[in-house]
Amino acid sequence: MALILARGGSQRIPRKNIKLLGGKPLIAYTIEAAKKSKYINRIIVSTDDDEIAKVAKEYGAEVPFYRPKEISQSSSTELEAFEHALNWLKENEGYVPDIIVKLFPTSPFRRVESIDNCIELMFKNPEADSVRSVRKCTEHPYKMWKIEGNFLEPFIPWDQKPKEAHTLSYQVLPPVYVNNASIDVTKPETILKKKSITGTKILAYVMDEIESVDINNMLDFYFAEMLIERKIAKLET
User: Fold this and answer.
1) pTM for this entry
2) Which of 122, 157, 164, 211 measures 20 to 30 Å from 94, CA to CA?
3) Strands 151-154, 24-25: parallel, antiparallel or unpaired by DSSP?
4) 159 lies in a domain?
5) Does residue 123 share a domain with residue 204?
C-alpha cells in the first residue's frame, strides 16, 4: 500500500500539493508513479482538504477517510497520520497492509524503478524496520558552522589531521547522506509497536540529485519548472 500525506495548510507555497507544475497538479506526479509500480496494490491519500481529495481521486488515488484537523497542523507528526490511517483501515475495512510505501507528494521526478527497488530492498531484508531514500550531501556537515559569541566554531568537531576539515576538498571527507523526502518503506509493526516511522534498522536507498528534487518553496518550484522546460528531468509517462 502506498500512503501519500497531503494536508491542505502548506505555508511556504499555498496550496502546494495541487499547484500546477508542467500543467499538472504536483501530487499527480506521485500518484502516477505509484500506479506504475509492480507491487503497490492501493494508493491512499491522507488529507484534510476537499480540493486535494478531489484531485487525488481524479488521478486514480483513494481517499477513504479524511485526516482529522487536529493532526493536520504544521506541528503535527507523520507518526500521527500513519497511526490514524492504519487504525482507520483496520477498524473500517479489516485491512492491514504488508508494508506501507510512503511517497512524498513534493517529489515530482521520482522514478517508478526507485519505488520498486525500495520495496524489493525491504522484502530482501526482513530484519530491517524500514527503507529510506537519501541523496549524497552537496553541503558537507564538516564545512558547517555555529556562532558562539562573535566567532565561528565547527558544527561537528574534526579530530584528524589536518585539523581544519573546512579547508579539505569534498573528495577527502567521508561521504554523508541526507533524507531526500521521496520514499520511505515501513512495516506496520514499526509504526504501531515501535511508535516510529523508520525504527532503528534503516536501509538506505541512494537517489541522484534530479530524482531527489523536493519542492518546499517557490525557488524549488521554479527550479523544477526549468528542469521540465529544458527536458532535463525524466518524467514518468
Assistant:
1) 0.92
2) 122
3) unpaired
4) yes
5) yes
